């Protein structure tokens, strides 16, 4: 679908493109017309676009998906998300309905169609990227579906030809009472029903919003959106698997490979959410190597896990050391104290081995050694939750990452219980959250539970603003906020500069 304005592909190689690719040649310049605003992205685009369009359209879509992800990280509800996204969608990926009579309808839909497929290529390489992409695309689809013109939405759904079966008159008679009870319809209101295989609507089954009969889920009309969205996700998941298998063939195209690699890297790079004010904690005297054990009770689970592993094994592997050193630096531990902390913790090795193998890395983290850029920037920035949550999973013997994601649910709950979380309902909800990959929501839930008395107090007396209690998106914010809340009576002025301020 790329116009051959110029090409870096060796012409000899182009001549040798295999038959499987040539079979698509006929479709190469077909332009599609888009009848509907919404798209299930079932048919790949085949008309030509320039390399420039290829890249800019993908980047624009990426901006939209990143904002959607930020909304879910901040736990925004659908209405807040819709409000936040209105301006962003209008700027980067407008998609007007037929009734708008806009001149640009086809162009907008073309950009939406192409950019979806470009990102599909860029994000199908790993399981993690595929899951993340499918989740965000589903959010985008749901948002648009909700806002679509009612008539157009109806026509779009009819056009999908989803194999929903109608509930027969006989079934309606047979299950009349149960259907009336399950429909939630007001008296006199007529409710239409479909039926589908229950495995296709697991969310609705779990939330008991359908009636289960003879292996089929009877779904009331008002749940249509869930059905359409679930089907969208199912098809996208399948398509991403297929794309992943076809990816190696793309390596032949050295115009696209660098662009796709760049796109997936920018998707993987999490936003910086660390504020240097997180290191200035009112009332907390400068942390030392000796005070970390005591302070660790206020650490988030990711850092408690590293601390416990370090105490248990007197050692941590590279990524664990990096994640933990950055966090400690972020709470205000000086380089000297940090070196002392690691030296004392690695009890089983000699001074010589420590100096030779570990010291340099710690100094590097602090920007004490290394290239000019590292020194000028004073080393690395403490990792945000998003960074920790999107890194490759730890291997055997490694302890880095976020336990809400890396631990099996039973082990996670056991660890939480060890740290004093003993509320059964909370633990059950945490299990549900992690089952839906809402790791970060689970972590915030645990924080709110562990500090509920203090949070109530600062809310009631108005000493903290709503922003001070916004969703935590950084382990250092978790520590700072937790420490301050547990030391409210110690004369702290409040959460000075303590929101989740962003700093590049
Ligand atoms: Fe740490 Fe963030 Fe995971 Fe909480 S959600 S455990 S702060 S990485």
Automatic annotation (TrEMBL):
Cofactor: [4Fe-4S] cluster
Residue ranges constituting the DNA primase large subunit C-terminal domain according to the UniProt record: 296-479
Any Gene Ontology CC annotation: alpha DNA polymerase:primase complex
Keyword terms, alphabetized: 4Fe-4S, DNA replication, DNA-binding, Iron, Iron-sulfur, Metal-binding, Primosome
One Pfam family cited in the UniProt record for this chain: DNA_primase_lrg
Superkingdom in the source lineage: Eukaryota
GO biological process: DNA replication initiation; DNA replication, synthesis of primer
GO molecular function (one): metal ion binding
Cofactor binding annotation: Binds 1 [4Fe-4S] cluster.
Binding-site residues, [4Fe-4S] cluster: 302, 385, 402, 443
Family stated for the protein in its record: Belongs to the eukaryotic-type primase large subunit family.
Task of the protein: DNA primase is the polymerase that synthesizes small RNA primers for the Okazaki fragments made during discontinuous DNA replication.
PANTHER family membership: DNA PRIMASE LARGE SUBUNIT
Protein name (record): DNA primase large subunit
């Amino acid at each position: 679908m790329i116009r051959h304005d110029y090409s870096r592909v060796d012409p000899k190689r182009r001549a040798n493109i295999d038959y499987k690719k040539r079979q698509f040649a006929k479709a190469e310049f077909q332009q599609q017309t888009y009848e509907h605003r919404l798209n299930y992205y079932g048919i790949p685009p085949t008309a030509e676009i320039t390399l420039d369009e290829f890249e800019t359209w993908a980047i624009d879509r990426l901006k939209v998906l990143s904002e959607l992800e930020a909304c879910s990280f901040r736990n925004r509800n659908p209405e807040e998300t819709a409000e936040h996204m209105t301006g962003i969608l209008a700027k980067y990926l407008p998609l007007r309905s037929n009734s708008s009579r806009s001149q640009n309808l086809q162009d907008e839909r073309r950009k939406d169609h192409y950019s979806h497929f470009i990102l599909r290529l860029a994000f199908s390489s790993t399981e993690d990227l595929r899951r993340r992409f499918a989740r965000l695309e589903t959010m985008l689809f749901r948002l648009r579906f909700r806002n679509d013109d009612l008539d157009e939405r109806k026509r779009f759904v009819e056009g999908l030809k989803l194999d929903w079966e109608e509930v027969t008159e006989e079934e309606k008679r047979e299950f009349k009472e149960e259907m009336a009870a399950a429909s939630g319809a007001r008296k006199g209101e007529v409710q239409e029903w479909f039926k589908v295989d229950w495995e296709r609507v697991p969310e609705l089954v779990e939330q008991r919003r359908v009636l289960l009969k003879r292996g089929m889920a009877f779904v009331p009309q008002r749940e249509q959106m869930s059905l359409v969205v679930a089907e969208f996700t199912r098809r996208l998941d399948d398509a991403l698997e297929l794309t992943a298998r076809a990816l190696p063939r793309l390596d032949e195209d050295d115009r696209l490979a660098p662009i796709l690699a760049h796109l997936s890297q920018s998707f993987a790079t999490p936003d910086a959410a660390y504020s240097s004010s997180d290191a200035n904690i009112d009332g907390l005297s400068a942390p030392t190597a000796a005070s970390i054990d005591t302070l660790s009770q206020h650490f988030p689970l990711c850092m408690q896990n590293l601390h416990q592993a370090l105490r248990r094994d007197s050692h941590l592997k590279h990524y664990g050391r990096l994640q933990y050193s950055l966090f400690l630096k972020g709470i205000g531990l000086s380089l000297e104290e940090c070196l002392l902390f690691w030296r004392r913790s690695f009890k089983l090795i000699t001074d010589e081995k420590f100096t030779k193998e570990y010291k340099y890395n710690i100094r590097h983290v602090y920007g004490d050694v290394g290239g000019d850029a590292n020194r000028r920037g004073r080393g690395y920035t403490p990792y945000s939750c998003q960074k920790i949550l999107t890194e490759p999973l730890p291997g055997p013997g490694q302890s880095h990452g976020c336990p809400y994601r890396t631990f099996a649910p039973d082990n996670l709950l056991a660890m939480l219980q060890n740290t004093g979380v003993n509320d059964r309902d909370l633990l059950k909800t945490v299990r549900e959250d992690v089952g839906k990959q809402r790791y970060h929501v689970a972590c915030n839930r645990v924080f709110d539970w562990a500090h509920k008395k203090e949070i109530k107090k600062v809310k009631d007396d108005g000493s903290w603003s709503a922003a001070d209690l916004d969703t935590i998106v950084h382990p250092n914010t978790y520590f700072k906020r937790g420490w301050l809340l547990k030391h409210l009576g110690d004369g702290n002025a409040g959460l000075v500069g303590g929101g989740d301020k962003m700093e590049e």
